Structure to design on (279 residues):
């Protein structure tokens, strides 16, 4: 009779530890409450350990207790890993403003690079009147055009007379 | 069962949830499970569209808990009725629950693996 009561105690401890360990596991993988799961995790490990020592003394089955202990330890480790996860997110959050600035700067550079050799055409229509302006942003072409214009009319004095 | 009670007791309109996101408090950034409590409460109140807005994975996780509740009842009935197949029932229960858990929580696992 006394032995049966002892066996039941071990079994009850095993079931309690297993349920606590499963709850810990479910909580541990939810990022919002993951860190809090360390508390039931420790409870599950303690229950399973007590149950195991009890089972060793009474020579009763330990399957459920071992399962509870393993699940409890794994869940606690997942829960504890949330500290590192939070650390990583905080670290990344610090870097985000810098990253955004870099992306904007890269986009600006890319746009300027694309515009460097672009041909720009502007058309303005107002009833029958049409104006079309064609130009290029190519620096080389613009320099050539300027040289050509300067070469065509050299008589123009572009300096001021000093008296 | 506890999840259902929690979702019924706390109201999304009053915003009186006792659980606040530790990640958001530590990092200032919302995590993948933020809005899950709101989502559960809204699902129970039939406001599914709003629930999706609070958390995209809310429905999946809620269904996991609801199915688990039904499975506990069903497996308990089978366990006491069919005494010869108890071992097979337990194995089926374990495999089914693990698969459902992985399906429902896979995004959370991915989040944890990504940041750890």
């Amino acid at each position: 009779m006394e032995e049966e009561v002892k066996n039941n105690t071990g079994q009850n401890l095993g079931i309690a530890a297993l349920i606590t360990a499963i709850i810990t596991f479910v909580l541990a993988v939810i990022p919002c409450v993951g860190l809090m799961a360390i508390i039931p995790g420790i409870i599950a490990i303690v229950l399973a350990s007590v149950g195991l020592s009890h089972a060793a003394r009474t020579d009763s089955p330990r399957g459920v207790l071992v399962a509870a202990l393993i699940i409890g330890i794994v869940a606690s480790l997942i829960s504890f890993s949330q500290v590192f996860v939070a650390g990583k997110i905080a670290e990344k959050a610090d870097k985000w403003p810098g990253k955004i600035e870099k992306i904007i700067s890269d986009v600006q550079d890319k746009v300027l690079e694309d515009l460097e050799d672009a041909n720009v055409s502007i058309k303005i229509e107002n009833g029958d009147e049409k104006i079309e302006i064609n130009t290029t942003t190519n620096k080389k072409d613009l320099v050539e055009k300027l040289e050509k214009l300067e070469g065509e009319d050299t008589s123009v004095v572009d300096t001021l007379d000093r008296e | 069962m506890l999840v259902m009670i929690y979702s019924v007791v706390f109201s999304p309109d009053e915003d009186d949830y006792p659980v606040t996101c530790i990640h958001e408090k530590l990092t200032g950034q919302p995590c993948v499970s933020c809005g899950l409590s709101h989502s559960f409460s809204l699902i129970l109140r039939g406001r599914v569209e709003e629930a999706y807005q609070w958390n995209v994975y809310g429905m999946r996780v809620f269904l996991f808990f609801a199915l688990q509740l039904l499975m506990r009842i069903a497996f308990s009935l089978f366990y006491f009725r069919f005494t010869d197949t108890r071992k097979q029932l337990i194995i089926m229960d374990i495999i089914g629950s693990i698969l459902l858990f992985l399906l429902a929580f896979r995004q959370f696992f991915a989040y944890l693996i990504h940041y750890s």
DSSP finds four helices and two strands in chain A. The longest helix of chain A spans residues 63-116. The longest strand of chain A covers residues 119-126. The beta strands of chain A are 119-126, 129-136.
